[in-house]
Amino acid sequence: MNRTSLLSLCVAASLFACTERTPAPAAGTDSGKPAAPAVAPTPTPEGTGNTAPPPETQQPTATAEGDSGTQAAGANDSGVGEYTGAPAGEKATCSASGLSPRAEPASPTLPPPVESMRQRIIAAAVACDYAALNTLADENGKAVRFSYGGDTDAGDYWRKSEKNGNPELARIVQVLNLPYAKEGNLYFWPAVHVTGAKSDKDWGAVKGIYSEAELAGMKDQGGYLGLRVGITPEGDWQLAVSGD
Fold first, then answer.
1. With the C-alpha atoms ordered 32, 33, 34, 40, is the resulting torsion angle positive or negative?
2. Does pLDDT of 147 surpass 50?
């Protein structure tokens, strides 16, 4: 093979090799494949050289069930102490707990201080709130007369009597919802304490407050000897006593 033929063969081989090789795309040249989405860098706060960390997930703050002092008061508050000035009363049951706390309308209309005291006594008794009853007894003067013995605390006396099965608070509520009568400087409940129980109608007014046997015993002694409640025109609760 002469020199000229050999040179031609080499040139042809070089051209074939260059045609078969696929050149890599230069930088910035589209390779024909879809580009990966760009990820935006997390902004760096101005004045710092570090990348800001992702915000922390805020955990919910645990809510306390309530202040222990408030809970204690709420658990015992009878709804009466707030306007009698008495401490929160006991959440207890008593003979009056099933009665209505709303006083029956009085006829004729009572002086406002008397009516206010009557309504609040009823509400306190229905709530079994002995502390509120004590507060009402002392609100406008000397403590209420509640027995003929040496007891000095009306609320404590009624609490003990209730535990012994005597419906003291129910009788207070029931009597204060009966017709009243005024004698001297006191408004009395029931009216038959002043007017006297002389007829079946008179005795019928207090029927249900006392048993038939108790009422028969009073008749034998000549008149009504059950509970009577007395309030002055100024709203001073002076007595809630039974007996002769």
1. negative
2. yes
